[in-house]
Fold each of these.
Amino acid sequence: MTRDLLGNNTRWAAASEILQLISSTLVVLMVARLLDETSYGILGGVAALAAIALNLSNLGSHILLLRRGAQGEDLREAWSRAITVGVGLPGLLAVLLLVSKPFFQPDVDFEVYALFIVAGMPLFWLSELAVYLPVGLGHMKQATIGRFIVTVCRLGAIAWFALAGTQDLTTWAWANMVSFVLSAVLGIGYIWFTYGISPRFNRRAHEDLRPGLPFSVNGVTENINDQADRTLLLRFGHVDDNGFYSFGGRAIQFAYMPLRMLLRAHDSELFAAGKTGVTKAFGVAARLAPTAILLGFGSGAIFWVLAPLVPAVLGSNWSDEVVAVIRWLAFLPGVRAIQYVAGNTLSAADKQWWRFGATGAAAALNLGLNLWLLPDGSWRTAAMTTYVSEMVLMASLVALVFYWIRREANKPPVGADA
């Protein structure tokens, strides 16, 4: 029965990721084709800033929601806390980013900046929480329906942009904003209809600040590793280089889809096992690791081979430089497959601060190298600093998992004589 359930969940997880793949592919390709390298460079820099700020402010509300669902805690309490934290804090930080725009991105049009910041933080996060609640419960069919809602809204945004009289960055910013307003409202409504849980403010949500902080800061450090170079390329005036690099980074994200299908289908099982420690969680993760690594490197190899086809898809607005970007980044999914398996093992066993220690050190290394080298560098500089920090992070996470396994093995059993 359990095997049948896992197989069914895997199929629904695959369907969910395929939906996300379809919408993401169309969004990335259509927006890149209708914009030029310079406009895409601006979009990539602002979107990267929003992603980093979102991870700073959401306080791991999605992971706490997933864990509470997997461990059988009260759903109304879990949902209301996630909504309160996941909307309130990203909304507050979005306001602070708007006020401090002259420092972060002084040359970007304020309307474009504001629309992408607001859409990419509280609105996007609401629609994601509506998917994470069913995942935590192991209800992958319901999670797939939630993903379908988001997909329809994103496809509507693309249709609006493609059919608009003017295809510029401002038009896309408005279409993107409206799509996330709709997906947030419909996602919340779907959870209400399916589980009978209405959105409401939770006065005890502040109690999530402490347990959620390590997930949040870990997400920030992961995003610094992944996206800070895009914001800095734009900030240092390498706008066209950031266009190539941002598109390449977005394209390689599709290589993670098979890996995410595998890991998301087993999130509930992994977090349930982690309740008793790293060793049990690693028992689940070890079964997933060979397949995860194969999917990561295999998907990257496919992108490396297919990269020369990209300029023909994007059209005359783009040069062949984008091929080199994709090929440089094609090995990242394999490296991160190892990271995710090890890191998720620590998170499931409530060792998130240890995971943060590793990601924080790697992020500091990445940021330091970029601040030092990017002012006179290029997208190749950003790619090299990314690989250096990612390899350091991979080795650190694997070492931490085996450290905790040895520590638990040497721990005397409860009730043993002193």
Amino acid sequence: MILRRQTRQIQVGDVAIGGGAPISVQSMTNTDTADVDTTVAQIHRLEKAGCEIVRVAVPDMDAAAAIEAIRARITIPLIADIHFDSRLAVASMEHGAQAIRINPGNLGGPDMLAHVVDAAKQHHVPIRVGVNSGSIEKDLLGEFGYPTSERPDALINSALRNVRLLEKQGFEEIKISIKSSDTLTTIAGYRQLADKTDYPLHIGVTEAGGLIAGTVKSSVALGILLFDGVGDTFRISLTRDPEEEIRVAYELLRSLRIRQRGPEMISCPTCGRTRIDLFPLAEEVERYLQTMQSHLKVAVMGCVVNGPGEAREADIGIAGGVGVGIIFKKGEVWKKLPEKELLPVFLEELRKMEEEQGSVGK
């Protein structure tokens, strides 16, 4: 059983973070924020995939001004990502950002930070203190060296120093992140930070890579931290369409039995007994499952002889043979069909089961 680290609770829009609230799944758009239609369209896809909080880059005033129009057309909370320019932070909040992500130490000094904090208080906007390995102050690098898994002190001290800057302004609606592109440094850093503060933590591996490398690195680091009870929000950072980040995030939560969204798919890796082109079949089923909300367990197997038995715990499954295939339920054959009819009949049965579960839940 996972015992969550106890933290303070803050509110980002209508999403509670920390203090025992469910761990939230975040992502970030990769659109030009000032292009409202394109940004909104991507956020709608993220919402459909299960994203619960979204962050947008704010590199200029046009992007800050666009936040108002974007917020009017989306349902999940919106965070403005700010670097260096305090004016952009203030403008983003004035235009409706429900949280901001900043590094307080690089906004131009105490006066500039005071303007940002005043705006955050006025608009009831929490602040995420975000520190990356590449943004650590020179004096801390000189004292502690570049952060490593053996000594992540520079990351931790940079974050806590920046938190103190906000606390001196009488502001405590704070979330913290300390990201590294190194898996072990991420784990060590967050573990130590969790022992030093009770602010909620946003966890992630920055610049993790593409689909395969990024999924593996993020799943290792964040899986360990979440199992330790560390983390109140998280993002799987991938060099891919951000919708892929959401898919990986929920599979990670499911694997740790923390949260579940939509069906679980199990599938065989194929072997010499496989007599059907299983890869595209599995991809089509997986694509369809992403549109579903029910908690079914769905199997895609390559062998009609052993497949149903190996996936006996599945609510429904599909298995292929030579020119034919079967649909099975709880390990028992339900229908035997020609190969060309197998997928459409299977998807239709999934649709019916989704409707039945929805009716039961009402």
Amino acid sequence: MSELRNPKVDFVLKTIESRDVHFLRCWFTDVLGAMKSFAVVPGELEHAFSEGMGFDSSCIKGFTDADEPYALAFPDPSTFQVLPWRPQTDAVARMFCDVRTPDGQPFDGDPRFILERAVSQCAEAGFTPNIGAEMEFYYFKDADGTEVLDRGSYFDLTSLDYASDLRRDTVLTLEHMGIPVEYSHHEQGSSQHEIDLRATDALAMADSIMTYKLVVKEIAIKHGVYASFMPKPMNDQPGSSMHIHLSLFDEEGRNAFYDPKDAEGWGLSQVARCFIAGVLEHAREMSLITNQYVNSYKRLCSDGLAPTRIAWTRSNREAILRVPMYRPGEADACRVVLRSPDVAANPYLAFAVILAAGLDGIERDLELSSPCEADMDRSQAACRAYGSLPKNLGEAISAFEESSLMRQVLGEHTHRFLVRSKREEWDAYQSFVTPWERDRLLAVL
């Protein structure tokens, strides 16, 4: 078959033989970002590369209904990795898949395709996105409660941090799978941790985040504990974020966000300023993607560490977008950090809408407001320029539903599914009587 002439396919087939791989797991996500998988044996792989593997797409949230239950999964050979936590005899490997329709066309509801389309639009504009991610999570004794493993805090390196070995094993496993890690440390909350991934292209980073989440959980299970990516699992502890570091590089490989002659001293180019303005302008409507659950808004409104102001800053924690100044004057270090997304977001869709919002700002040459800094006289006006993030999922649904940009970047199919699915979630939550209400009202009313 012609695909076998692809050196990446050849590499996969040779590695399967040399590494004693007996199971190939085909990975993809549903629209909400839940990992889906089925396994094929090596003898079926040539067929999978050339013809795809059929599956019932009506079983996947956001894909198709029972009247159109057919889809094909085509493994991406560039994502082949042997799973290091599985036995190395009769080994198991994985590949991410592109989902297509029975006639071989990209499926509109495939989150990976939606991101690929957004990256292609960036390329048409002359840019290549470079994305990194800081992701937080909690370790608990088990999945039935929130009993923590330690009472450590930010950057603790003491006997309080019982999870050092878990983080170590997680980092080593990620690196064995070709995913470079920049940092790992204890976070602010009790038993809360962070592992940061080194920046790469958008699609590889989204794949890495999905792998990261599974690795964290698998290593936790091996140690007899449970890892959770719930945005806000405890009332009295901080929520878990996914800070997204992003820059654009031009066709010559230069950082298009960097301008050493920036008169205001930020090192930001006009491209960067327009990109930031676009992200801020569309922040409310894309909040349903970056913060997609009812619980997401408990993090954004309660702990004081999560940003709520749609503004940009150097250091103000209330602003959703920060321009870090760790290495001023270094072109490659110039970037923006979007701090509002939580770790439960689907990274494919989150990256797609963020890139689309920033690109819209560049194409329209949007003017950027003043930064929202605590020590500036004009700070209050700057912080009010774009308003605040939605206060709950209901507000987020309304902003998302009315957004032509969200409909354009996600496609009508995915946009419609998300509105319907999230409205069902919000309505179910609204009708649920919480322990908070019973504790305060049952005995007195």
Amino acid sequence: MMLSENRFTRALASGAPQVGLWITLCSNFAAEVVAPAGFDWALIDMEHSHNDYASVLGQLLAFAAYDTVPIVRVEWNDAVAVKRLLDLGAPGLLFPMIQTVEEARAAVAATRYPPQGIRGVSSATRATKFGRIRDYTTRIADETAVLLQIETRAALARAEQIAGVDGVTGVFFGPADIAADMGLLGQPTAAAVWDAIRPVARRLVAKGIPVGTLVSDTALAADLIGEGFTFVACGTDTGILARGSDALRARMTEKLTL
């Protein structure tokens, strides 16, 4: 048995736009509800949710039957967490709050086996189909998406150096935290925030580095893809549930008051 190609990683390398959905409900059942929707990728969040390894595994299993590629945002740039998630078969990882070249190198090293990195070796994992994938160790570095999240003005200033670290698949801009760092807490779509992000993103795109983000506005998401962003999440599962339930209740209230 041979290792399958990572559709998401290959798509980023080719420049094909990838539309995503943020997953925070920590439920394999909820993941299975959205998995057939046809998103190119989904982000299973461990940083800002109560996900643990067991719940992440359940969600990876839910997405396995569909074409949507699940990427996991690890809690922190921690080699032990990275090792466990890769052994569970996560096709890619998003590392939060990368500030320096050294942190970027540490993130990549955690995803690589020695001598290129420090990932521990275990042959009987879900990732290797319990020892059945014969070329896993030789090919997994090329198939794993390593995405680094830029979330501060200092990181924006170093983005080109961070993105240039060997093994980085793409750079993800976190507008909510960038806004907070700029004194605009709660204003991720403020013009000043995107005036800071866009020039950096353009420079990375010009160098052939895939860039992405999360915005809960489909018009802005589409505009960003038109500007060269490659992987853009356009909403969250909790947002869909909250806004959908609010809208349903409002429509019912309107009908009852007519």
